[in-house]
User: Fold Ankyrin repeat and MYND domain-containing protein 2-like isoform X2 from Parambassis ranga.
Amino acid sequence: MAEPQKGNLSDTERQVLQVIASGDVQELAQLLASEEVRVNCLDEYGMTPLMHAAYKGKADMCRLLLQHGADVNCNQHEYGYTALMFAGLSGKTDITSMMLDAGAETDLVNSVGRTAAQMAAFVGQHDCVTVINNFFSRARLEYYTQPQGLEREPKLPPTLAGPLHKIIMTTNLNPVKIVMLVKENPVLVDVAALEKCYQVMDLLCEQCVKQQDMNEVLAMKMHYISCVLQKCLTFLQKRDDKLDALVKSLLRGRDSDGFPQYQEKFIRDCIRKFPYCEATLLQQLGNDPTAFSVLTQALTGQMTFVDADYCATCGEKGADKRCSLCKAVTYCSLMCQKLHWFTHKKICRSLQEQDADLEKDTPRLKELKDDESDLVMETANFLQELCMRAEEKVAAAGGCPVELLGCPSNSVTGPPGTQKSFD
Ligand SMILES: [Zn+2]
Ligand SMILES: [Zn+2]
Assistant:
């Protein structure tokens, strides 16, 4: 079959594009079965059916086209757009992930030199930017599941590759969340397994630094995950209550305001211990934002406290349940609320009182908020620049590994119920 030429479409191929615009996936499947359809045909602008489906946000059609051999890296578009760029522009994280899993290259640029991540950022599709910036291919990890050179055993037992890859792909860097991801997989809750995993993470970190187009953002992520895994290892060896004790330590807030000091110190230490010191990140640590927000902004390009409520326990985005007493903290699940209660109960009452005071004093609160947001914006812009240098990228994490069953009792010692918030 000849190379597709722009605009040289058969009637059936034109129908394909129409069905992508306004039809359903069954119709598309029927058309693709026809011999007259070249899956990588180009319309007059150099767009393939896959580009059209990605731009229209049709995940099931994208999947079908990929199964039929659509070229995810076709770059014949008149302005050099790729299917990944269209996916990012559409704002659909599932399609963006699908393109990456299918081998989409993240460093291809359009005719004005912009990558897919930069284009998505330009139109405000920040979730897609995060997905692209965090992508790390499973194949790259699986390299370590084969013995290399004179090795008798691989550095990473194949059974650990899946669970470890899931952790690498997480876009929620809250250490509690990462410990939960470890706990979720019995194969990881093991001293020997954790040792192998963190050693591989250290190797990947080194590789990210030494590769030709050094990726310090991804290197930092690998290093950070290695630190959390090493902490899990220490608690497994030294504490009877093991990972539960680690979660509690990470959540325990100081008496005055509930600020989780141990967690803050842990993340600061991780950043400081980064062997390929990123001076700009360290400077940020001196200032107001928490180490966690600095890290998250550097690694995902997202600010931690805009547009969404974050779970006070695991940091998962979109938490929509509030402590029904103080209404000041949000959770993604009842399990997260239960985990947090031992420390939250110490400040819940004073938060209730603060809430009442603030209502009396609204104008002043508004002023304060504006000042704060300026500072936050400045920090974010600075970190955004750092992120632009990221090249390798990752797919979105699943939800919080929690069941909403097993409600906590409303006894005096248990946490209060949560309520859906409507704001
Ligand atoms: Zn949570
Ligand atoms: Zn409360």
